[in-house]
Amino acid sequence: MTESTTRRQWLTHGAALMGTAASGLLLPQHVLAQSGKIRVGFMLPYTGTFAQLGVAIENGVRLAIDEQGGKLGGREIEWFKVDDESEPPKAIENANKLVQRDKVDVLIGTVHSGVQLGIHRVARESGVLNLIPNAGVHVATRAQCAPNVFRTSFSNSQPTMALGEAMVKRGHKKAVWITWKYAAGDEAFEGFKESYTKAGGTIVKELGLPFPNVEFQALLTEIAAIRPDAVACFFAGGGAAKFIRDYAAAGLKDKIPLYGSGFLTEGVLEAAGPAAEGVLTTLHYGDSIETKRNNQFRLNYAKTFKLQPDVYAVQGYDTGLLLIQGANAVRGDLSKKAELYKAMEGATIDSPRGKWTMSKSRNPIQDIYLRQVVGKENKVIGVAAKALADSGAGCRL
Ligand code: PHB
């Protein structure tokens, strides 16, 4: 539906209400609140290296809601969309397009940790309900946690918190770490460092390049010269596909095993081709999780979108599930904030990744899987960490 038809409807509706008021039959506030559509805004990357991630998240949200009748707490939905381009300097302005201009009830976003900081500021100042379907930036569910901000994905150090141990167990005691230098990469490193050094490994070099740069050549030459036992990394989206291909093309694939935070191999297996075969990663999802829930989700997603789902689709789907639970608890009246937050913080999400619950600081407590790329699949080969919670350090909720 277009913006102008909505506005027209709103005007007609407004006139009808004024008529009611004039005749002395004022509707109670909660009926008014429930009479219109729930306004849901997506602030996601639809262009740039994370474009596919944004699309997968939106698809996941829509699928969860469509599977349950397409409404939230009995109310119809009006959707809004802003492309955040994974551009932190534009984040506050973009978030305000949804919050101030479009007056959304819920802002779903985003992918990039730097952009999330802008959304977070707007969410804290406006009080709008913000569901984070990807970005793992620590402060959002640590020192700056907020009652109206819930994350359905991970904190940046969660996936790598189990990676180092898996590498040492395979005999790789000296590693090089490489990443995009921004919050997501730096915080993924924190998890890796803790897990790798605790298990007895030594990080011999940290390498980095600015996001979303993909000129990996000089860094790969440096890795070849250092000759570590293994390489661990954080990359995602289009840049991850290129890193995997470049790593193999530089002749490193068969000499120095490549490991990663599992985003490395999500949604990129077609683009990366045979260069991805055998890569080991840790993440809170794996394509091959053999449960009825996951199989059903994968089938419905593939049928609906003619695409294979990945972790981003799952995170979007779980965002939809969380929103449904919250909206149902308040029968569509999202202005009942205390009740809404209570339902959401106590939610158990029956996710394709496995059931998970919200921590006190509003971040998933979840299993982390060890996966290996086999053909076009991230195959689960073990559970690297069970019911892993982020520290939530500094959060006073
Ligand atoms: C992030 O910026 O927080 C981020 C982006 C892409 C990922 C994971 C984390 O796959």
Task: Please provide a written account of the structure.
The protein is α/β, with parallel strands linked by helices. It has helices at 3-22, 29-35, 51-67, 91-101, 113-126, 163-169, 183-198, 217-226, 237-249, 269-272, 292-305, 311-329, 337-345, and strands spanning 38-44, 77-83, 106-108, 129-132, 149-151, 174-180, 202-209, 230-234, 258-261, 280-283, 348-351, 354-358, 364-374, 377-388. Strands 6, 7, 8, 9, 10, 11, 12, 13 and 14 form a nine-stranded mixed beta sheet that branches. A hairpin with a 2-residue loop joins strand 11 (348-351) and strand 12 (354-358). Helix 3 (51-67) crosses helix 12 (311-329), helix 4 (91-101) packs parallel to helix 5 and helix 6 packs across helix 7 (183-198). The longest helix is centred in the first third of the chain and has 20 residues, at 3-22. The chain is globular, with a radius of gyration of 22 Å. Bound molecules: P-hydroxybenzoic acid.
